[in-house]
Amino acid sequence: MTQKKVTYGKAAWDEGNQSAVDEFILLGVSDQPWLELLLFVFILICYILTLLGNVTIIVISRLDPRLHTPMYFFLSNLSFLDLCYTTCLSPLLLVTLLSTRKSISWAGCMVQLFIALALGTSECMLLAVMAYDRYAAVCHPLRYMTIMSRPLCLLVATGSWLSGLVNSLAQTVLTMQLPLCGQNHIDHFFCDQPGLFKLACVDTSFMETEVFSVSVFVLVVPVSLILVSYGHIVTAVLRIRSAEGRRKAFNTCASHLAVVSIFFGTAIYVYLQPQSRNQGKIISLFYTLVTPMLNPLIYTLRNKEVHRALRKVLGITPTTKAWG
Fold first, then answer.
1. Cα torsion angle, 125, 127, 130, 135, sign
2. Degrees to nearest 5, angle at CA 105 with 17 and 178
3. Distance between CA atoms of 57 and 133, rounded to whole angstroms?
4. Order of strands across the sheet with 23-26?
5. Nearest Cα to 85, choosing from 166, 168, 154?
6. DSSP E strand stretches across 121-271
7. For residue 141, what is the DSSP state?
8. Any residues with CB less than 8 A from the CB of 222 and at least 6 apart, and which?
9. pLDDT in tens, 150-163
10. In terms of CB atoms within 10 Å, which of 59, 121, 157, 187 comes out highest?
């Protein structure tokens, strides 16, 4: 008996019954042209505000010595991560929304998938690290700078980025092994694993279960750690006798908690519960585009330290002792 040769990834398209195909068509909402125009304007505004807000956070965190603290070190990492994340998706999305042929090359699709998975995973881990930072600041204020030492901050930040890269590499290589011998239309705005699984000519139930399990770990474990951290924070805040002290402690955590709620809430809704595909597409735009835009606003709107730093950049030059 001769063994049938099975090819994977891009090569599978070339050996199929149809002519060689080396690109995917991103359907998005192409069946609703009026909605495409609205989404283009919405996404363009989100992208511009994301660039302005996150670049501002990074710049002022570097220029003002008063912001050379663990909290703003992690916040700068989050801003840089959001910049990379939205830049990975938004420019191509804007182009495809205006194009009649909404295509992306096979290689481009794999690169986009790799970057999006890496940065999405890294953000989950980084938000959990930031929750621990807030726990240390509120529950152990006198030892905060000792607990969150510079070497530890560098270590956990690096670990967050590396965890994203490792998970993304494994997931992307797994996806590249799929024998793609069906149609090349992905029912999404960008390349994602569920959309690619639907194009495979083999049973993908095992891979879908594996991806779901990884999603549970990447989303639920950080959320659990965040909830534990904030459980301790709430207990510590309730022990503070003065109303002013409680308000100040709450304000140091409210911004992070708002970011966590928005990001994880929408991500869990998309990945960990069944819903219509079209509904999932729209919600995915929220946590990939809207959340990175809101993060700088949430962190700076009521933050007096950031307000002072912005005034300093505009001409005020007070000095203070830097972290480290």
1. negative
2. 55
3. 18
4. 103-105, 23-26, 185-186
5. 168
6. 185-186
7. G
8. 124, 125, 127, 128, 264
9. 999 999 999 999 99
10. 121
The residue with tokens 């980084």 is: 126
Single out the residue of 2, 33, 7, 38 nearest to residue 20, CA to CA.
7
pLDDT digits (tens, 9 = 90+) for 247-296: 766 776 777 777 788 888 777 776 666 544 455 677 777 778 888 888 88
Is residue 218 pLDDT above 60, yes or no? yes
CA distances to 50, 61, 201, 290 from 311, rounded to whole Å, are 21, 13, 59, 27
C-alpha distances in Å from residue 74, one per residue of 67, 91, 319: 11, 26, 22
Q: What is the pLDDT of residues 93-147, one digit of tens each?
A: 888 888 777 888 888 888 999 999 999 899 999 989 998 998 898 888 888 888 9
Cα 270 from Cα 291, distance rounded (Å): 14
Neighbours of 107 (CB within 10 A): 12
Whole-number Cα distances in Å, 131 to 156, 168, 253, 260: 12, 23, 8, 9
Q: Which tokens belong to 101? A: 């042929």
Angle between helices 205-239 and 150-176 (to 10 degrees): 160
List, for residues 20-39, the tens digit of each pLDDT value.
Answer: 447 788 877 767 777 888 88
- Alpha carbons 112 and 93: distance in angstroms, whole number: 11
Do residues 26 and 101 touch, judged by C-beta distance below 8 A?
Answer: no
Q: How far apart are CA 217 and CA 211, in angstroms?
A: 10
From 307, 313, 309, 304, select the one nearest 322 (Cα to Cα). Answer: 309
199: pLDDT strictly greater than 90 = no
Predicted pLDDT of residue 182: 61
Alpha-carbon torsion angle 177, 179, 184, 185, nearest 10: -70
